[in-house]
Predict the structure.
Amino acid sequence: MLTKRIIPCLDVRDGKVTKGVRFQNNVELGDPVEMAAAYSAGGCDELVFYDITASTECRPIDIGLVQAVARAIHIPFAVGGGITGLDDMSRVLAAGAEKISVNSLAVKTPAIIAEGARAFGSQCIVLGMDPVRANDPVRFPSGYEVTIRGFREHTGLDALAWAIKSQDLGAGEIVVNSVDADGTRDGYEINLTRLIATRVRIPVVASGGAGKPEHLVQVFTEGCADAAIIASMTHTGEYTIRRIKDSLAAAGIPVRKKW
């Protein structure tokens, strides 16, 4: 049985890791290189690094910071934010990342998924999506609409339809970040995660809402997720990767232990 992956998320703004609730009221938490190194040593399976203001500020991702993180860790990591095309993808991979996450760019230019998959392989292309609950079953049969630009822009895309299309275009993985649950620490959006995970053939990563190990148990068992992104619950020091994995193992969920 494949092990479930635990992936801390480093949202970076102005060179510092930051975290908010539903994309607002962010507070600084620390140095991304130091935090990445600590997570790598602490037993996480992967990392994801988002330059959360690069796209809105119309600037390229901080490649120097990506290189510094790559030198500090010994696990795979994905990078997103400020990606505008194949050249940016190539620079990020050359800087040491294993995967590139595209979100707003993919919505605006879906062909970038196929182009990236052809150039670098599907395993390198991650679709990031930020769905929010929608109450128009005609326009959004799944019950969720895709948003972009940090929830600033509604796209009119149904979340499930977009997930399936991205898979068909060549995405190798989908990160489903619930806008409604983001930063709340009240648990993942189980219905949303399960809806997409059971309808696509590629791995689905649950994101948004993790507050305690039981939430990860639930998203793996009920939400059918292949991996789970965490942030606040470990950034604050309340939980360690080891404690989370011990809880998952006790619940019968296969995890990779590095101690």
